[in-house]
Write a structure and sequence with these properties.
α2 crosses α6. This protein has a single domain, classed as Penicillin V Acylase, Chain A, CATH 3.60.60. The strands form two sheets. An eight-stranded mixed beta sheet has the order 1-4-5-6-7-8-9-10. A six-stranded antiparallel beta sheet has the order 11-2-3-12-13-14. It is α+β, with helices and mostly antiparallel strands. It is globular.
Amino acid sequence: MDRFTLVKIKSADPFERGLQYGAQAAAQILGGIENYKKHFLARNLSWEEIGRRSAQYLPLLEKECPAELTEARGVAQGAGVELGDVMALNCRYELLKDKPKECTSASVLTEATGGDKVFLAQNWDYRPWVMDNAVIISIDNCEGTKILGIAEAGQLVRNGFNSHGVGICANNLTSTLDGGDPGIPVTFLRRRVLNSKNFKEAERLIYEGKRSVSCNYMLASGEDIATDLETTPKKVFRVEPEKGIVTHANHFVAGAEYCTAHDNKFRDKMLRRLLLENHGHITKEDIFQALSNHETFPGAADTYPQADCIEALCTHLPKGELDPNGVWQTIASVVYDLRAGSAYICKGTPCCGEYVRYDL
């Protein structure tokens, strides 16, 4: 069975946590740096220029996220790389703003499960070479909070949940409101949110965090609360659960007037439809099955370069000779059982992989 490397981190000191992370994931971090050097170069951006752009985020992070920045410094030392390299990995979302086909996510509350289960789920879609450099991180801060999630190695976190039952997933968004002074990089904000003791605290951090680009946050808690927050540098829009289910992909719903994504907007609706088929008794297995769905938008191309992915909930590479920097696929599928403290993570497309259970 193919699975991601598990990185176990335990310390009350943020720098030590970073050291442990960097040392255990050094090979994946170095691989990610080399891949992103090529990826940025394909866009006529040198690694030196990326380093300069990433450094612009440091003053705000020193002020707003000192513990998280200290972790990042530890990651760099542990992996034997420069802080600028780790910052580039953590700021790639802000610096690249690739075409928004990154992920479909959902929250499923007890009204929909018909029991005491609360789930947070996502298919993470991105460049295929990222799969080799992604890791699962398990963090114990020795102060009462444990975190389990997935990340591109070197990033503080991509999505995850904690021992207080708070979970977060994120999807790419672009809007007419993007741009401006550097904000808190999304990986730093997600990591900060995962220190939260409850839903209200996590939600407040998202609202108050300074932003330079748009990003979608699917936020849920074992308190049986969930919401989807479409954030822009100037506004936050909410998509609330209906019948105990909320889904989202890569286009604005509540803030549709500001959306600049003009793709076939169907994945969030497809996921909701599939989940509703089992409304009142949704299980983790039902979510696994839904995330493995291959139905595409009618008439969608399946050959490169007309298609950069075979776009569906379970996203596959298109046919033909591919540009590895121009295609997409599902990198990981995750289902978090927020009350049980368990994660089910599948490496690659869930239709042909296997979900592995990890406990906090």
